[in-house]
Amino acid sequence: MVTGAPGPAADSSTTDGTVRTKRVTARPFVIALAAFAVLAIASVFVVPPIARSQMDKAFAQLFTEPPSIGKIRFNPLTFTLGIEQFRLPARSDSILTFDRLRISFDVFSAFRGAWTFRAIELDRPVLRLRLASDGSLNLARMFKPVPPAPPGKRSKPPQLRFLSVALRQGRIDWTDETRTPALATQLDTLNFLLTDFRTRKGSNSEYTLEAETPQGEQLAWRGRLALDPLTSAGRFRIGQLKARTLEKFLAGVVPFHFATGEADFGAHYAFDATTTPVFFRIDSLATDLRDLALVDLVDDSAGIGVRVGSTRGGSIEPRKAIANLGTVSMDGLRASMAILPNGHLDLERWGQPVPGAPRDTAPAVPWTVNAANLDAREVAVTIRDTRLRKPARFHIDHGMVTMTNFTSATGTTFPVTVACSTGEGGTAKGEGTMGVMPPTADLHLDLQGFDLRVIQPYIDAFAKLELTSGTVEGDGRFQFSPNGTKGPLVRFVGEATSRNLKTRDRELKQNFMTWTSLRLHGLSAELMPTKVTIKEIVAGQPYIRSVVAPDRTTNFQVVLTPPGPLPPAFATASTDTPEVRIDKVVVRDGSAWFADLSLEPNFSTAIQQLEGTIVGLSSIQQTGGQVQLAGKVDRYAPVAITGTIDPLGGAGRTDVSVKFQHIELTTFTPYSGKFAGYRVRKGKLSLDLRYEVVGRYLKGENKILLEQLTLGEKVESPDATKLPVRFAIALLKDKNGNIDLDIPVKGDLNDPKFSFMRVILKVLVNLLVKAVSSPFKLIGLLVGGGEESSLDAVEFDPGSAALVTTGVIDQLAKALSERPGLHLEIEEKPDVARDSVALAQQRYEQILTASMTEADRHSAASPIRLPSPEYAALVERAYTKQFGPLPRDKTKRGKGAAADSAAFAAAAMRLAGMEQKLRESVVVTEAEIAALARQRAVAIKERLVATGGVGEERLFIVTQANGQLDGEVTAAQLAEADSLAAAADSAAVAAKPRGRDESRVWVRLSLIPE
Question: Distances from the Cα of 479 to the Cαs of 408, 428, 494, 527, 817, in angstroms?
Fold first, then answer.
């Protein structure tokens, strides 16, 4: 019986060494070969069609559009299924494609308790995801809705095991059409490996994910994953992430642009879904930044950047809302920002939601950010203040910031050290503590050489002044604390110094105010509320320049006037009333310069070597500060300022005395030439001024002493007064050649019409007009004669040269002795009317006296004083002696009262006729009257010389009065004096009645200059 086909013979050896051949059967081999052939035929012709049919059914139930499959292969030996050239959907814009999917199954795994796949391999998959404008995802639209599972007990899922899941050379294309413009990005060279993945509880598997973008960005993700329970831990790294990529994803979500730079991120992570809430933590965080720049959306000149930055050892705990950055290092940190017209920083927008960006309706949990160490080098910050017409710009560079135990937790602070350069050699250092929530600072600051020229835009808004040089340095404690009513917003306590300050008048192109140093000792400055306390201010070589321009405006008016409307941010008055106290101000080697360019030649003078103190200035105490300053005018004339001032309070008392001694009057030649019409040849000026202000009412005393004032040559000036200036000076000069004046000033400073200089001018002009219009009244006042005293005339009895009184002459003699520059003219003009009558009466009485008897002389000294009978007898004797006896009266007299009355009347007529005849015989000549006038002038002169000590050479007898000194002041002269008030006063003086006895004869006197 044949049991199998013949096969090849097998050789064997016998014991005797002979070889014999034995036939081996081939049946098992044939069976195996047949089986293999069947499997091969099935894998090619049976399994693929069946698999394709089953896949088509499954895909039809799963997808809305059928996919296309290129080839399906099956290896019966390894039980491996391969699918090639898959496209879903089948059209050209497929969402999912891959070159090959290989699934290798372990057929014996069912005996080991878990269905096991030896390998799942996917080659070159491409996933094209597109998020439509309506928010739908193209991939989600490919799946048909899944019907709900029928109720009932769910079967336990089978146990699965994947020894290896690999994805090679994959690519993901992402397009987001919900954004404008649409976002398109790509992740390619995607490789994924998952090893020994099990669905059994407690099992872990390892995975690796690597990918790269066309821009060279890299993603690496490695770790372990478990499904039951769902946990994962591992490490991820994103390398060379470009700013352009971040801009694509975050544009419109964050309030800034990612302009340039790239970043690396790497960390360990841990995930556990068994906890509530889900546990997720990132630790060992490491980041690296290179040339990263964030630019503001509104202003592309504002932003933040860093050349190189890194963090090490950080961690993130979302459940606790804590981000720990570990150690932070930055090199080349820079920031640029602006102060907006509303006073806020533009970068404050970064903390606010972006308009149009999606918002989370859930309340945000405040995160706490910590850093064990933060070290920033080469920090540069630029701040622009756009509230001004020409924005101010502040810049610091070469900065260094070190923070230890940084935290943003509410109410906590951390140590900080800062240092930077402020430009042009300036430096700043700070060390102390800071806080984030709320923002606080408590630092010891050291500022050196800060260039004040950076504040020029602020000066430009308020004044026409140029700050050409100046620095500030300070050392003290700076505190910032937004605690509302609990304290000031800002406080600085320490020392501050300004050096080499120079300001320049933009109009006159000259220095306005300068100092070599201004030191503030014991400075305490607070803001909101404002309170400033300074123990001592030491001003070294302060200087100020005051100039009157050709148009009579002062440089203070021009410089301190804003060039235009104030910026709106500075136009609103602050409601914060400052409290200021300065204990002491020390002035060392100060100076001031004054010039009047309205004069030709120009006038100028200076105060130098000003030294002294001001003590006790305060804005709340009304006692005022005590002033003691001393200096020199034009290097030689001393000046002293003493008293009490209240420049800070405004409601306190000011009582200041200013004394200038021996100022050379030649300095004022430009003024004397323009307004007086003469140059000053020589002289010195001393001033003793005292000004008292109580509330807002000013009361001043101005004592002026002009020593040896001597006028020089005349100057032609259209502004010069027509009044006799030389005469006025001679009137005012005393015997020592000095003019001593006392000019009071008073007025309400709140009155807009009140002008201090106008009041002074009014008094001076009044004095000048009074001198030339009423010189005798003026010198009468100067010698103590009183307001009503007038020395311009001497009284005489008519017909007499005897002085009635010597009081006027003696006062006049005193005045002349004290004013040697004056000459006196004595009028010789007779009073014809009164003197002729008086002389005729004197001659008539002389005729009667010659006929008086001894008895008459014993009865009366004067004939007209005799009793009537004796007087009638005397007249008859004198008449008879001169004209002969009268004819006898032969009229018979009757008796009785009527007869007596007729006889009395006849006797009276007879007496009157004799008197008339005798008087008519008297002759008074003009020569006699002129001689009387001469005798009176001589009497006055002799009295002045003999008893008053007035030099005879200063006295002149003139035939008539000098009409030039008439005591009348014309309206034209008052107009030349440029004072309406002076005109009114002078007119009142001229109109005032003299009150003289008009029955007397008055000899008028006139004063003339030497």
Answer: 18, 16, 12, 11, 75
| H helix or E strand, kind and range, residue 702 | strand 697-714
- What is the helix (H) or strand (E) element at residue 781, kind and residue range? helix 775-782
What value does the mean pLDDT take over residues 519-545? Answer: 91
Q: Per-residue pLDDT tens for 676-700? A: 677 778 888 777 777 777 766 677 7
Contacts of 833-838 spanning 24+ positions with Cβ under 8 A: 834/798, 834/799, 834/1001, 835/798, 835/799, 835/929, 835/932, 835/933, 835/1001, 836/924, 836/929, 837/798, 837/799, 838/797, 838/798, 838/799, 838/800
Burial 682-696 (b: 16+ CB within 10 A, else e): ebbbbbbbbbbbeee
Predicted local confidence at residue 967, as pLDDT = 33
Higher pLDDT, 486 or 583: 583
For CA atoms 565, 566, 568, 574, the dihedral sign is negative
pLDDT tens profile 128-182: 999 988 888 888 888 888 777 666 656 666 788 888 999 999 999 989 888 777 8
SS3 call for 634: coil
Secondary structure E strands in 725-775: 738-748
Q: Which residue has the tokens 């009229």?
A: 891
Cα(988)–Cα(991) distance, rounded to whole angstroms?
5
Judge whether 660 and 687 are in contact, CB under 8 Å: yes
C-alpha 727/C-alpha 1009 separation (Å) is 5
Q: Are 365 and 321 in contact (CB under 8 A)?
A: yes
* Range 779-833+929-1009: architecture per CATH: 2-Layer Sandwich (3.30)
Rg (CA), the chain: 62
The pLDDT of 441-470, averaged and rounded, is 92
- Alpha carbons 663 and 705: distance in angstroms, whole number: 10
Q: What is the mean pLDDT of residues 498-524?
A: 91
Domain boundaries, the chain: 779-833+929-1009, 834-887+896-924
Query: Nearest-5° angle of CA 513, CA 518, CA 522?
Result: 145
pLDDT per residue over 401-432, tens digit each? Answer: 999 999 989 889 999 999 999 987 899 999 99
Sign of dihedral through CA atoms 227, 229, 234, 239?
A: positive
**Token pair for 272:** 């556990």
Strand, helix or coil for residue 606:
strand
Alpha-carbon dihedral sign for residues 776, 781, 782, 784: positive
Q: Does residue 623 sit in helix, strand or coil?
A: coil
Q: What is the DSSP letter of 137?
A: B
At residue 90, the pLDDT reads: 82
Which residues partner with 237 through β-bridges?
220, 266
Pick the residue with more confidence: 758 or 627?
A: 627
Residues 6+ apart with CB under 8 A from 334: 304, 305, 306, 307, 379, 380, 381, 382
pLDDT for the residue 744: 75
Rounded Cα distance between 645 and 624, Å, is 5
DSSP three-state, residue 561: coil
> Distance between CA 921 and CA 847 in Å, rounded?
10
- Between CA 135 and CA 142, with CA 136 as vertex, the angle to 5 degrees is 170
CA 5 – CA 13 distance, rounded (Å): 24
Distance CA 440, CA 460 (A): 32
pLDDT of res. 964: 32
The pLDDT confidence band at residue 987, using thresholds 50, 70 and 90, is: very low
Q: Name the 3-class secondary structure at 837.
A: helix
Cα–Cα distance list, 418 to 47, 448, 476, 485, 823 (Å): 76, 14, 15, 29, 84
Q: What count of other Cβ atoms lies within 10 Å of the Cβ of residue 336?
A: 21
Q: What are 238-281's pLDDT values in tens digits?
A: 999 998 888 888 877 888 889 999 999 999 999 888 888 888 89
Q: The pTM is what? A: 0.68
